[in-house]
Design goal:
Length: about 300
């Protein structure tokens, strides 16, 4: 029986399963829609599809370093209970290792790649895991970083995976020093490494807010400009890593601290992943959630 794109789309609409899963099921069922849906159900894919709209804001972040390559990754689950399971921790390690080997440019590319040690793509791998566990598991974000031989990686994982940081220092190969900076990044949460990276629209917005506040306080127009300059300098010191007070010696900025450790040392790049950052969690009825899990 000929299988059309319309048939696959219809199966996808009725089951909520992914397009490729529906195509494979239709081929296996020789075009029989009901049999294909049964195949999806037997494989647990329908169960996974039901969880597709669930919010997965728990999970783990992690860092893995291998020579001059490193990856920082966030993998989400629906509950903290699953995230604490040793099998979940193993999964995070396996995915991190895969990303280091495959080196995808972005999430879309990563999900389409064949998963190491699995007969399918990374996306299919997570669908399979979701069906097996009965809880939505997803690869949310990652960054693969490459350093030069004369640079240093700094890797730090806080609170067992709640926050993971990866930095690259230039001008040194001292991994311990780089880790100190990574620890600072975890604690201070800078948004940028240096001020020339700050979005111009953000600066303009901050200036407008400060100016409006000063006018509301009745400050004379002729001194507002000078006050604004001071406020913007303070703003930079809050959001730019190299200008932040170093957490272990607040008399020095991070750059001044690096200067004290050797000439020409600075931060080349940083990535900080905080678990669930930016995800809006839904409050739920626990009894209702358990009942749904039992379906």
């Amino acid at each position: 029986m000929a299988i059309t794109a319309a048939d696959i789309a219809k199966l996808r609409t009725s089951t909520g399963a992914g397009m490729m899963d529906c195509k494979k099921a239709m081929e296996e069922a020789n075009g029989d829609m009901e049999l294909a849906a049964e195949i999806l159900r037997k494989k647990g894919i329908l169960k996974a599809a039901k969880r597709a709209d669930k919010i997965a804001a728990e999970g783990l972040t992690s860092v893995e370093v291998k020579g001059d390559l490193a990856v920082v990754v966030e993998i989400n689950s629906e509950t903290d209970f699953v995230a604490k399971n040793e099998n979940f921790k193993k999964l995070v390690g396996e995915v991190a290792s895969h990303l280091l080997t495959a080196k995808p440019a972005n999430l879309e590319e990563a999900l389409k790649q064949p998963m190491t040690g699995f007969a399918g793509t990374v996306e299919e791998y997570f669908t399979n895991i979701t069906a097996t566990i009965g809880e939505k598991i997803s690869l949310r974000r990652f960054a693969v970083m490459n350093k030069a031989a004369d640079q240093a990686f700094g890797a730090y994982v806080h609170m067992g995976g709640k926050i993971s940081v990866l930095v690259i220092l230039s001008g040194t190969t001292n991994a311990d020093l780089a880790r100190e900076v990574a620890m600072h990044v975890a604690a201070a949460n800078p948004k940028y490494v240096r001020r020339d990276e700050v979005d111009v629209s953000l600066l303009k917005k901050e200036e407008e807010i400060y100016a409006a506040q000063l006018k509301a306080q009745g400050k004379p127009e002729n001194i507002i400009a000078n006050i604004l300059k001071g406020k913007m300098e303070k703003f930079y010191s809050e959001i730019c890593l190299l200008e932040q007070p170093y957490i272990k010696d607040e008399e020095k900025t991070v750059q001044k601290y690096l200067d004290s450790q050797g000439s020409g040392i600075t931060v080349n790049k940083m990535v900080r992943l905080e678990l669930g950052e930016g995800i809006e969690k839904k409050s739920c009825d626990f009894a209702a959630e358990v009942a749904e899990q039992m379906k």
